[in-house]
C-alpha cells in the first residue's frame, strides 16, 4: 500500500509538505505542488486509513468531481446535481477537474467526511474505483464508467458513435473525419468504436484524439482542413467539440452545412439553440444524466443495501441544421 512517505520520497519533499499540498495547496509553491502531484499520479496514492476514519460518522455532504466548465454538458449536469441534492437536504462540494489533475483531486476529496461521491471524470482503468469500494463510500459515475462496468449512468456510447457516422453515410458523405477526446475514458473510447463499426475503416489522417480544450480542437480542425482532400463531414466525439469546430469553421468562412457537415454527441441544451441547431445524438428520453446519477446516489446513501447501478440510456439522432446531403 502506497503511503504519504512514499509520495514524499518520490517527490523529494517532506511528509509535512505532502500533507500541506493535500490540505492547503494554496500555501505551497507551484513548483513544489507540481512535484507532489506528479508523485501522487505516478504512485496512484490515495490516503486510505485517514479517509475511512472520516466516513464513519453520518454527514450530509456529497462530493462531485466534474469535468471542466467550458463543456456545456458539465454545466447542465452540475446544476441538476446540486439543485436536486439541496432539495433532499444535502450539500454538494463541487470540484471542476481536468484529466491531468485527477490524482490530486481524488486524494484531496476523500480526506473530507462525505456521505457519497459522484464522478464524471473517471478513467476506464482508475485506482479510485477500488479505493472507494474498499472504503464502502457510496459512489456513482456518470457520462464515463470504469472498466468493471459497475455504478454508472451513461448513454449508449457505442450506438451513439454508430448512429452519428451512419447519419453522415446516409447523406452521401464518403470522406468522414472523427475528432474526439482521450481513449482512456469510456465515453470517447466507446463512441469511436461505434464510428468504426459504422464506417468499416477510417484513414488515420482523418482521426484525431486527445482534444482536451478549444485550442486543441482548433488545431485538429486546421489539420483536417489542410489535407490535400479535406473531409466533407466530421463526427465530433461530444457536442462541446462540435460547437468548437463550428466556431472555427465560421471564422474561416466555411459554410455549414453546405461545405462541411458536423454532427455531435450529447444533445446539450446549447445544441438546440435557434442560432446553432446542431445535429447531434443523445438520449431518447432526454433525461439529464447528472440528475439520474444523483437520484441513484442518494438512494444508495439512504439504504443499507447498495445495489449495483448500471444504467445505459438508449439514443437517437436529433437531425437539425448542421448536416445535409453531400
Walk me through this protein's architecture:
Residues 2-56 form the HTH lacI-type domain. InterPro entries: HTH_LacI, LacI/GalR-like_sensor, Lambda_DNA-bd_dom_sf, Peripla_BP_I. The longest helix has 16 residues, at 72-87. The strands form two sheets. Strands 2-1-3-4-5-11 form a six-stranded parallel sheet, sandwiched between helices. Strands 7-6-8-9-10-12 form a six-stranded mixed sheet, sandwiched between helices. Helices cover 42% and strands 16% of the residues. It has twelve helices and twelve strands. The protein has 326 residues and is α/β, with parallel strands linked by helices. The chain folds into two domains: 4-154 and 287-313, Response regulator (Rossmann fold, 3-Layer(aba) Sandwich); 157-282, Rossmann fold (3-Layer(aba) Sandwich). Helix 1 packs across helix 3 (30-43) and helix 10 (214-225) packs across helix 11.
Question: What's the SSE blueprint?
Answer:
Layout: H1 4-11, H2 15-23, H3 30-43, H4 48-54, E1 61-66, H5 72-87, E2 91-96, H6 102-109, E3 116-119, H7 127-134, E4 139-142, E5 152-155, H8 157-170, E6 176-179, H9 186-199, E7 207-208, H10 214-225, E8 233-236, H11 239-251, E9 261-265, E10 279-283, H12 289-302, E11 310-313, E12 315-318
Parallel strand pairs: 1-2, 1-3, 3-4, 4-5, 5-11, 6-7, 6-8, 8-9, 9-10
Antiparallel strand pairs: 10-12
